[in-house]
Amino acid sequence: MAGWMRMGMILFHIFIASFIHLNQIIVVSSGFLDTFTPAEIQSRINLINVVAVDENADNELITVVEKLASVAFWEEHGVMIGKIDLSNFVWPSGEALKIQHLPTKKEPSDKDVSVLIFPKRVLDRTCLSTPPPGPPTAKLCTGEQSYEALVECVNSICNTYRLPSGALSIAGLHREEILNTLFHVGHFSNMSMGQLFGKSRSLLSSFHKEESCPDKESSQKSSNEVDNNEAFIYTNIQESSLKNVIHQCEKRNLLSKEDFFHNYLKISKPVIIKGALDDWPALQKWSNSFLRKEYGERDVHIKFTPTGEYEGVEKASLYENFDTFKIPSNVRKQLEFPDLVVVRPATANVKFSEFMDIVESVTNGSRKNISAYLEYSSIPQHMPELEKDIMEMPFFSNLLKREHLNIWLSDGNTLGKLHFDPYDNFLCQISGRKQITLFEPHENTQLYEAHIPEAILSFNKSTGEFHRKALLDSTSMVMSPVDILKPDFTRFPRFADAYPMSCTIEEGDVLFMPAFWWHEVQSFPNKTAGRNLAVNFWYEPFLTKEFPCPLCNLDINPKYRHLL
Fold first, then answer.
1. CA 510/CA 529 separation, integer angstroms
2. Structure pTM?
3. What does the angle CA 13 – CA 16 – CA 18 come to, to the nearest 5 degrees?
């Protein structure tokens, strides 16, 4: 009741103290701003942005700030506006207030220290042992202290989109439209993972019933064999009888920049662009012999696994140091899956020619039980001469900021397990093909996004044996603990409600994979070259989120406000 009375008083004051002049509302000071203590600010910025004016500022400025609260940001739930006693401001820790002067043409003066913004705190989610954050640094709205200038300042710092009238700007309306129309696989598919595996079990049951000469032994198939059959059906989804029920990636020919931006990038929708690499010299030029000749003596960092599976999740108890390895209690209590680990492959620094020897020996069958992969290796850093043989997509150039350009080369029989990348991704297939199974990033509780401890394989070059040597004191933030080939719906029941999408790219194709989409990548070799070769462009994402945070939603990256 007190809250409603206070709101009524605010509205009453605004009504009797306002008048219309040139279509703008001018609010006369009504004295309704709360005064925030340092402790209150430190607590509230975990959820919202705090804008504060010095309570000792002149009445004209306080009136302008009251108008921010009662008009421009009245309906903005992510911004709270009030007053502080700047002359006596000390954080509960005893530290003094630090103020960041934003770049401006006007030199800051003592008079400017009046309207401060304490931005919503972005949590450091990268490390589970990070100490509590210290007091925040306030950002100062310097320059002209007019109402319109302060609205602009609050918008730029708090990532809001309000006009002086309080309405959403065109950019704000565009943002709302984007977030309300994001692509959801479930809107176009009736096949969830739970339904998919129910259907595949039904198919397997029919298969077993139709086997000739059934006997007691054949009817008692082990659960592992059934699981392997299910994995076979799912891995070969494009060729199986299930292919018509899994939602497939849309395929397009070359796009215009406008088409790509509005129909794919801004709504976070994957798409395959057919024949996008037809003009790339790399398609014909990058033969095994060419790469050997140009880079044979270069040192490369490669990954090894015994089966071609990369970054899977398995039990920590399989590792040799399990009994002696201790996770600090303050870290362990934050882990959702302390009994599981993300398996990092064994690594080695070798000459590129030695790497190609391994690839070719695996391909011709002379070497077994090993897979070698040159994965996400930077082209500009390690093979800069190759960049002239490839080019960015013409419909995408100068749209987003490029962060990485990588090469991916293997014998072709590799499986990159379920994970996401915090980049907008163009995956460009040069040799062989890839089948990618994707899950959208909008319901990350279904994929069990979390910190997962890591472990690493070791490889003995002389014996060719792999060992599960070491649990690590690091965690992965981008891997899912769910095995999509053999899902444990008892432990991960929400995964049954996830909707898969299948995308297969052939030589010359490009897959646009928006940031934070979960994906598992099965590679297949070009039978003639005996390899799988791709490059990918990673960009600062248009839509971003905090991670690992299964309940955090995508939002427009503040770095791309100018695109709205």
1. 20
2. 0.87
3. 95
